[in-house]
Amino acid sequence: MRFLFFLIPFFLCAEDSFITQIEYGRMLYENPRGIGCVECHGESGEGKIIANYTHKKKQKQLYGPKINDIEFDSFSKALQKSQKIMPKYYLTKQEIEAIYKYLESKKDIIKDK
C-alpha cells in the first residue's frame, strides 16, 4: 500500500504526450509524408535553391520560398491548397500548428545567438 502512495506524485506530474508539440513539428518538418519541408525550404524555413536548370537557353533556378516569417493563416492556407511543384501533404490542423510552432521556435533560437 505504501508503494502506491509513493507513485501518486509521478502520475500527477505525467504529461499527456511523450513528445512536445515542437518536437512533433520538427519530425513533421523533416519528413511529413516522404519528402520533408527541410529539403526545399531549408533547416529553419529560410528558403533554399532546389535546382538549377536551363530553359530556352536561359539559366533558371527553382527554389523553395522562405516560410519562417509569414503569419499562421497564410502558412496554413498555403499548405492546404494545391501548389505547382509542392506536394500536397493533407496535413491536419494540429500538424500544421506543430510545424508552425517548430519554425517559430527556430526563429527564437536564432535571435538568442
From TrEMBL:
Coiled coil: none annotated. SUPFAM superfamilies: Cytochrome c. It comes from the Bacteria. Residues 20-107 form the Cytochrome c domain. InterPro entries: Cyt_c-like_dom, Cyt_c-like_dom_sf. Keywords: Heme, Iron, Metal-binding. This is C-type cytochrome. It comes from Helicobacter ibis. The lineage of its organism: Bacteria, Pseudomonadati, Campylobacterota, Epsilonproteobacteria, Campylobacterales.
